[in-house]
Design goal:
Largest sheet: 7 strands, mixed
Number of strands: 15
Order of helices and strands: HEEEHHHEHEHHEHEHEEEHHHEEHEEEH
Strand content: 15-25%
Shape: globular
Helix content: 25-40%
Bound molecules: pyridoxal-5'-phosphate
Radius of gyration: 21 Å
CATH topology of the largest domain: Aspartate Aminotransferase, domain 2
CATH superfamily of the largest domain: Type I PLP-dependent aspartate aminotransferase-like (Major domain)
Structural class: alpha/beta
Length: 408
């Protein structure tokens, strides 16, 4: 590692809280699918900032919109209307086939917003007695790390020493609709689910699960909320991941790629019956829905909803999974290779762990991060070319094969 990198890492460690354990690379520049460190070394991005950089880094149309809008009108708060937000609301709701949207900034804020909507809808529309509303979530979920969201989490580390927790949450196993049916009571306002669990290690539910869960929710008048902050916006080969199952959620939560990779933009989208419960003052955000966010997001949505891009993701994703499965066939170190579109994971045996492989990938010019200790996350920008993807996947295959030789 260069001296400059080491100095910056030391400064970060000395002056910052240690709430992350980053890969030891100090980035300075990005363009398209590539990242450069402070020593000028180039890497291919197989992370996309957890699905944020789906359009690649520094997309020219996104940057142009950002610069122009920042000059024209920046942050004025929701104390006033601005000339961009209504257009973004219209675009987003049309794309989602829903009535209304509510802008926020980060994913966690949008999930909190959805939970507040569910609680107020539960009391004022469904008629659940005051302070009795329950929301059901899934084991292994990741919805963010605010106090309410760690209260909903089943991850020991996210909770340890952060209690007391927010009441009103129940947990059921992911993929088990019988457990969901048992958990629903007259006090249940909502069920929240990631169509593909990202942070849990790219976990896909059994086929048909989401449809059956959706039907159960409809039957019991429970809101069906999908958190597509990571898996949405064409990442899996459909604009919205729920479209694979041909269903309509009551609330859709988006973030990450919604800001074009350059600006924090998140949203809750849903039907008027639910979003209509909010009155002025019930909820808000100073930055949420500002003109820059709205303009940048409109451009991002335009690009991400391009049918050609979406079809490409399906083609590349199918090819990539097959390529990985072929290249890693018979490896005693690999437990599973899974994914949908360009959201993939390679699960290795716990004795090996994914961190050493991810570090070895860095040495080969491929940047990604392990999730849940044993899964290599593979989620490149959706604009990656097949040749670039092939090189990155071949590097994954090589580092696993090398580890086999080392451990033999
Ligand atoms: C599914 C899901 N929900 C919520 C979040 C939280 O988003 P943010 O980090 O922007 O608050 C994430 C972040 O990884 C996520 O993957």
């Amino acid at each position: 590692m260069s001296t400059k990198s080491q100095q910056l890492i030391d400064l970060d460690l000395a002056r910052g809280a240690h709430n992350y354990r980053p890969i030891e690379v100090v980035l300075q520049r990005a363009k398209g699918v590539h990242l450069w460190d402070v020593a000028g070394r180039r890497y291919v991005d197989m992370m996309s900032a957890y699905s944020t950089a789906s359009l690649g880094h520094g997309h020219p149309q996104v940057l142009k919109a950002l610069a122009r809008q920042a000059k024209a009108l920046d942050v004025t708060s929701r104390a006033f209307y601005n000339d961009q937000l209504p257009l973004w609301l219209d675009q987003l709701t049309r794309l989602a086939g829903m009535d209304k949207a509510l802008p926020m900034n980060t994913g966690a804020e949008a999930v909190e917003t959805a939970l507040k909507l569910a609680r107020k809808w539960g009391e004022t529309v469904k008629g659940i007695p005051r302070d009795q509303v329950e929301v059901i979530g899934c084991e292994g979920n990741f919805h963010g790390r605010t106090l309410a969201l760690v209260s909903l989490s089943t991850e020991a580390q996210y909770r340890e020493n952060f209690g007391p927790f927010t009441p009103g949450f129940k947990i059921v196993p992911f993929g088990d609709e019988a457990a969901l049916a048992r958990a629903i009571t007259p006090r249940t306002a909502a069920f929240i689910v990631e169509p593909i669990q990202g942070e849990a290690g790219i976990r896909l539910p059994p086929p048909g699960y989401l449809q059956r869960a959706r039907a159960l929710c409809r039957q019991h008048r429970v809101l069906f909320i999908v958190d597509e902050i990571q898996c949405g916006l064409s990442r899996t080969g459909r604009l919205f991941c729920f479209q694979h199952d041909d269903l309509a959620p009551d609330l859709l939560i988006l973030g990450k790629a919604l800001g074009g990779g350059v600006y924090p933009v998140s949203a809750v989208v849903g039907q008027a019956e639910v979003l209509g419960v909010l009155r002025p003052g019930d909820h808000g955000s100073t930055f949420g829905g500002n003109a820059i966010a709205a303009k940048v997001s409109m451009v991002a949505l335009g690009l991400l909803s391009d049918p050609e891009l979406i079809a490409r993701v399906t083609r590349l994703g199918d090819w990539a999974l097959a390529h990985l499965r072929e290249g890693l066939q018979g490896s005693p170190l690999v437990r599973d290779i899974r994914g949908q579109g360009l959201m993939m994971g390679v699960e290795v045996v716990p004795d090996l762990g994914a961190r050493c492989l991810v570090d070895a990938l860095k040495e080969r010019g491929v940047l990604t991060k392990e999730t849940h200790d044993v899964v290599i996350r593979l989620a490149p920008p959706l604009v990656i070319r097949k040749k670039q993807l092939r090189r990155a996947l071949d590097a994954v295959i090589e580092v696993v094969r090398e580890a086999e030789t080392r451990l033999a």
